Amino acid sequence: MGVQATNLVLALLVVAFISFRGAESRKARLLDSFEYSAINCRAHTASLTDFGGVGDGTTSNTKAFKDAIDHLSQFASDGGSQLFVPAGKWLTGSFSLTSHFTLYLHKDAVLLASQDMQEWPVMKPLPSYGRGRDAAAGRYSSLIFGTNLTDVIITGNNGTIDGQGAFWWQNFHKGKLKYTRPYLIEIMFSNSIQISNLTLLNSPSWNVHPVYSSDILVQGITIIAPITSPNTDGINPDSCTNTKIEDCYIVSGDDCVAVKSGWDEYGIAFGMPTKQLVIRRLTCISPYSATIALGSEMSGGIEDVRAEDITAIHTESGIRIKTAVGRGGYVKDIYVKRMTMHTMKWVFWMTGNYGSHADKNYDPNALPVIQGINYRDMVADNVTMAARLEGIAGDPFKEICISNVTIGMAPKAKKVPMDLHRYRGDDERGNSTTMWHATGPRA
Ligand SMILES: *[C@@H]1O[C@H](CO)[C@@H](O)[C@H](O)[C@H]1NC(C)=O
Ligand SMILES: *[C@@H]1O[C@H](CO)[C@@H](O)[C@H](O)[C@H]1NC(C)=O
Ligand SMILES: *[C@@H]1O[C@H](CO)[C@@H](O)[C@H](O)[C@H]1NC(C)=O
Ligand SMILES: *[C@@H]1O[C@H](CO)[C@@H](O)[C@H](O)[C@H]1NC(C)=O
Ligand SMILES: *[C@@H]1O[C@H](CO)[C@@H](O)[C@H](O)[C@H]1NC(C)=O
Ligand SMILES: *[C@@H]1O[C@H](CO)[C@@H](O)[C@H](O)[C@H]1NC(C)=O
Q1: Do 116 and 236 have their domain in common?
Q2: Which UniProt keywords apply (predicted)?
Q3: Which of 162, 254, 264, 304 is catalytic?
């Protein structure tokens, strides 16, 4: 067999705008700074069936969830409460959680997202985005929604939440949606949140979206959506502080983890970064997207991100930084180590001309700062191109350190294993111009 697998060893790559700085000492400091206080058991508990819930897969339980949670909310300052969802198929529209509260799904409980539009209240766009992402006017509230809460757990013995997304994907493709598709779980302006031990299927759009929140643990989540489904991102920490994502398995049509912090002038004005984020033991399959994406909405800044023990089985890219002129903000102090990757186009991908703006009013002088990006101890095989790094002219991406990375090229790999471009900073309004081009070591 004429398979020409090439082993390309990138041992501390330092090219032009790339330099090294003391990564290790910072890393140690980050490791110590994460603490997740135990969340108490709940003094009060109830079952969805106590509030008229019917688990037959066809009766709507939206009102049962509302009545149950309204009732249980009175115990917030009296030991908290738990709502138990027994085995069964529980059709429901969007419902909202309360504080000091656990939603617990039996292992054979399946929440089925309703396809009746009356069951999905419409909300204003997020302030850091300025508009809905699919449709400017607004957004359907997520299936499980919470805002201004503290101490919330959504868990189960691997119970299931099925978004029945095909309905939404088709309407999205046909341009029939008046508002932005709902997410499966969205928690805003909250703290002390755990989302654990659940299976999430076929989300209409993003799966788990903590936004403007802190002290979040996402653990033991299986997320599955067709690899061609639109925008079915796995977990999107967005303007959040102190988030830990652990032991998750994600197959999806978009980025497995997408770290965000608002869009262009809206994100800059809101000014809330995502920081202190740990991602560990993630397995990702997403042939058309990234294992971990930073951006493209990063206008509030992204900093102190540490990812380790990541497995990508078939993805378009390993780590991708996406940004554009007009974003402002920053992506800095990113540490990724111990990634194992099979079959991908670009292990490392940075895109400075991502485009896609909230509106035309973005500031062309708002340039993102990309700095302190550290990748080490990684192995990849069957790779088309090791790196594709495209910066922004006049706004160099700095302090990029790639070390101890072994990349096995695919039989049909590009002749140029690395492509380092810098573009003029005028993105889609002008023409991208390659300022310079360098190639890595040849096979
Ligand atoms: C939730 O908190 C945010 C930020 O503190 C505040 O602006 C908003 O009014 C609060 N919303 C509700 C419903 O209390
Ligand atoms: C949870 O369920 C999913 C889907 O059935 C399965 O793939 C996964 O292995 C289960 N996880 C655990 C920890 O049992
Ligand atoms: C998830 O389930 C595992 C195994 O049953 C358990 O050890 C772990 O504590 C659970 N995680 C959370 C955060 O509830
Ligand atoms: C290089 O990375 C591999 C894992 O990909 C690891 O086993 C090895 O210890 C690393 N070498 C050094 C010198 O850190
Ligand atoms: C290598 O990647 C190609 C796609 O680029 C895929 O078709 C092929 O099955 C992969 N080979 C292996 C051994 O995984
Ligand atoms: C982009 O390229 C086109 C065709 O080459 C040219 O007509 C146009 O003036 C260019 N625009 C800018 C902003 O450079």
Answers
A1: yes
A2: Cell wall, Glycosidase, Hydrolase, Lyase, Secreted, Signal
A3: 254
Tokens for 97, please give them. Answer: 């959680």
CA 168–ligand 1 middle distance (angstroms): 29
Judge if 199 and 246 occupy the same domain: yes
Average pLDDT over residues 342-348: 95
Q: What is the pLDDT of residues 276-314, one digit of tens each?
A: 999 999 999 999 999 999 999 999 999 999 999 999 999
Q: Is 57 exposed, middle or buried (0-12, 13-18, 19+ CB in 10 A)?
A: exposed
Residue 412 falls inside a structural domain: yes
Let me know if 238 is a catalytic residue.
no
Provide the residue range defining the domain that includes 82. Answer: 44-254
Angstrom distance (rounded) from CA 332 to CA 28: 16
- Whether the predicted pLDDT of 30 surpasses 50: no
Domain end, chosen from 219, 254, 289, is at 254
User: What spacing in Å lies between the alpha carbon of 286 and ligand 5's midpoint?
Assistant: 14
210 and 102 in one domain? yes
Going by CA atoms, what residue is nearest to atom 5 of ligand 1?
A: 189
Question: Is residue 124 domain-shared with residue 91, that is, in the same domain?
Answer: yes
- Measured between its terminal Cα atoms, the distance across the chain in Å is 18
